[in-house]
């Protein structure tokens, strides 16, 4: 509670001019794809009860993904939208399929060059590979946020 109170006081002191007056909300922009917006909202509403129903979360999540991808595939794309994310995803999958069988037996190039992946089965090597995996996963997951 003290941290929240201190934060509010600091913000009030530094931004008192901006906080005076009234805020007027602007009208939201029109959605680019109204059909997909409605389908996505419906899927989100349906996922809530599905997740708490007791079945494995992967089942309703997979069904929701199929519904959303199906909606994207069925809808005609307008020229203004350009290539959607599904086209980029498919292109990336083709690259992975072409390169996959040749490079599965070797660690990634960055790991080979840096030598951080470890080569043994002892505790230090296993700790090294888990730290390397955690670090690269963190970079891959957080990089799009920046």
What brief labels describe this structure?
7 helices; 146 residues
Model description:
This protein has helices at 2-14, 16-19, 34-52, 58-74, 85-103, 109-114, 123-142. With 146 residues, it is mainly α. Among the domains are: 32-75; 109-146. Helix 3 (34-52) runs antiparallel to helix 4.
| Element-level helix/strand string | HHHHHHH
Approximate shape: extended
Structural class: mainly alpha
Question: What average pLDDT do the residues reach?
Answer: 77
Quickly count the helices: 7
Uncertain segments = none
Biggest sheet overview? none
What is the end-to-end distance? 30 Å
Q: In what range is the share of β-strand residues?
A: under 5%
Percentage of helical residues?
55-70%
Rounded to an integer in angstroms, the radius of gyration calculated over CA atoms is 24 Å
What is the quaternary state of this protein?
A: single chain
- Work out the number of β strands: 0
